[in-house]
Amino acid sequence: MSYAATLVINGSTYNYPAGPLLPGFSVFFRPDEITFHWGVTTDKSLTPAHLGAYTATIFKDGAQVGPTINVPKHWWFARWLYEINPDTIIRSRSGSFRFSPRS
């Protein structure tokens, strides 16, 4: 199962994780959510600025998942999350940790 995201910003298309990528914009794919983060960069040539309106489309194995999301504004160094399945259990009881006091 493979997820991807397409952003359309000011008429330009950016595809994550394949590329092209927007400098300063990161998309993190986790088992339970996809995080969209603007302002994560080590590139000192980028000037901090808020991002205007854009659209985000999520894909799973090449097929669109849900509607295209209209993002009205994205603040510098802010993030938003797309929950893949809010009811997903990542770890079973048998896989959880047990802590015991030291003797």
In round numbers, the mean pLDDT is 86
Number of helices: 0
Radius of gyration: 17 Å
Tell how many strands the DSSP assignment holds.
Answer: 8
The N- and C-terminal alpha carbons lie at a distance of 45 Å
List low-pLDDT spans: none
Strand content: 35-45%
Assign an overall shape.
Answer: globular
Helix content: under 10%
Q: Characterize the biggest β-sheet.
A: 5 strands, antiparallel
Classify the secondary structure makeup into a structural class. Answer: mainly beta
Helix and strand pattern:
EEEEEEEE
Number of domains: 1
List keywords for this structure.
globular; 5-stranded antiparallel β-sheet; mainly beta; 3-stranded antiparallel β-sheet; 8 strands; about 100 residues
Report on the architecture of this protein.
The relative contact order is 0.23. The chain has one domain. 0% of the residues lie in helices and 40% in strands. The chain contains no helices and eight strands. The protein has strands spanning 3-9, 12-16, 25-29, 33-38, 54-60, 63-64, 69-71, 78-83. Strand 1 and strand 2 form a beta hairpin. It is globular, with a radius of gyration of 17 Å.
